[in-house]
């Protein structure tokens, strides 16, 4: 019995064990390798994706639980890699080894959707569920702040454009 | 994306096998991942550098990238001396290429130290060849020409791009003594250069070892025995019936489950039962006993002896004594161990994956399988951290052995539990220090014994303050354990640095001296009249200490308790001041000031990342990490109980660098060893509690 779901705006049908965690369905069966395996027990956040817009740990989420759901992975966060969070991550040169960063970015982007103008304390709390073994935490926190500013500017300029139109 | 990765690897393989040293011209495909490959002519000026007639500058970075930023730092140096704009440079990771490169490895914070001159020469010789080519074309004196942003500029204002000169330049003799830039003219070195892989990382491109996919590849996981045990038997009857399972095979006391997909292999693995034989398997109590025995044995190895410690301590006015201990810990890089191997019937082998030492992997696999080294190709993937773990190729050898057994290309993948329970660990060590002070509080005798479990020499006998003390005895004892150990970021010094710096804080207190002034007094002594051999430069020590005192407002911050430490390792000097305050009756580290002398800072952004990352690493492991053993089995096994530091547990950090223009030295490790010390000393200053064990009990 196959399971249907939407991944990065594309409809997908998977005919595999419905207990397969979404992480391995993405990595092994859809060749979407951006979502990372770190611990397999939802502790580190490297596998974070969005399910129906909510940041979710994909390593413990069986495929059966996301039937007909809308999943976004790092590959689908933006078409050109220019989501404000991605831009901020590059500008502030956040990554060291880079392995955890897809999960960090998906967490950050989801956090900013809910809280577009976060305080420093809110950023620290919002991001502390994701482990970075290289210790890029300061830059992660600064980049979330920067991303919120980039997004705010984008919004202002697009509002202006539509006002002109 | 899978396809672009594959075609990139194919292109790189083509590029590196197509021609040898020299100035061969070849046809190569265009930029990795391009939808339509453009065919360009390209000239490889040297191992690092290729410039096409279209002006494309490709710089090859040979060393494995593990998060230390070497893939960015190496090309920065070449580009600087070549005098091109960084935006015009394309960086490519070179696969293992023993013809072109030596020391193609990641370890010991040694890459820039080793390659600085080579990299500068690679850029500077090519730059000079472009000048020569332009001068010949224009019939002018080369010394009247200069370069800027990839152009040669002639005396009458003539201008020619490197690309337009490439075909002529490549035929000219390579200058043996090129002219180098004056560092005041540096445009890229010392500035902030963003990581060359950032775009791949933030868009989730498959650049890591675990992302590797090859045609016909199968997946395997391996059940490994408890340390010291041997596999007696295993039952895979049920596992073999499970969907997607191809084979279950045993080698070297291990059982490998081979299947089509990761999840299927994980499921089948749980259905395999193994029986082991083993006597006297090690537990925590075994390790305690070995520490106790090692501390009293007469058979210690003497690593340094200055003067007569025993006579001096006997007449000391005051004796300070302390014992420090650290447990085995796991490296726990975010990307667990994994490796791909394809051992083919034609004698060739393809290895691919994350390793800090690709050439060792090549040699070890050649020996293991009795194959010709030259037929073993090694592709380097980006590594999701390593911290020393990937200096040991055990997991690459597993992949090669398994591939030869099942006759299939295979990717061996360790789970987090495998990674945490399977070694190779930072060795557990216990240190005993003794200091004798005279009536004026001067240290006249210093003793250290290190007892390590599979640690080799657990001391670093030439460490400061050795050189300033008349009577010194430094010894080590190594106890052989079946628990596998290896280098862990700043091997030995990652804990020794803490123990020494915490002990010296006790010495300063007993002597009634300021910890900073005490060290400066010792260094003055080393400068005027050193005791025995010294391996560090006292002036560089003095500079980082003074700057740290100044930048941290040492002992001038009301309401803040401070701890000091300074350490020399991997040829770099790092001084730290940690600030602590009491919050709800508990000490909290709020800030760390770090001053580093690593010589020339090649990439300021990367350098800050390394210093801050190493400090956070140091705090986290000092505070939280510990493995215990029971009958040869390690616990805990995953991040739910093996705690790694998180973003809400870090202090603010200021990273300063001494600007002295000395050739660069190590930076991946040196900021870590002093961290435990500055933190423990600040915690003592705030709470009056000394910390003698990692993980800290606060």
UniProtKB/TrEMBL annotation, chain A:
Residues 1-77 form the 2Fe-2S ferredoxin-type domain. Keywords: 2Fe-2S, Iron, Iron-sulfur, Metal-binding, Oxidoreductase. Coiled coil: none annotated. GO terms for molecular function: 2 iron, 2 sulfur cluster binding; metal ion binding; oxidoreductase activity. This is (2Fe-2S)-binding protein.
Automatic annotation (TrEMBL), chain B:
It comes from the Bacteria. InterPro entries: Ald_Oxase/Xan_DH_a/b, Ald_Oxase/Xan_DH_a/b_sf, AldOxase/xan_DH_MoCoBD1, AldOxase/xan_DH_MoCoBD2, AldOxase/xan_DH_Mopterin-bd_sf, Ig-like_dom, N-heterocyclic_Hydroxylase, OxRdtase_Mopterin-bd_su_IorB. Gene3D superfamilies: Aldehyde oxidase/xanthine dehydrogenase, a/b hammerhead (3.90.1170.50), Aldehyde oxidase/xanthine dehydrogenase, molybdopterin binding domain (3.30.365.10). One of its GO terms (molecular function) is oxidoreductase activity. Residues 243-326 form the Ig-like domain. Pfam families: MoCoBD_1 (PF02738), MoCoBD_2 (PF20256). This is Xanthine dehydrogenase family protein molybdopterin-binding subunit. It comes from Sandaracinomonas limnophila.
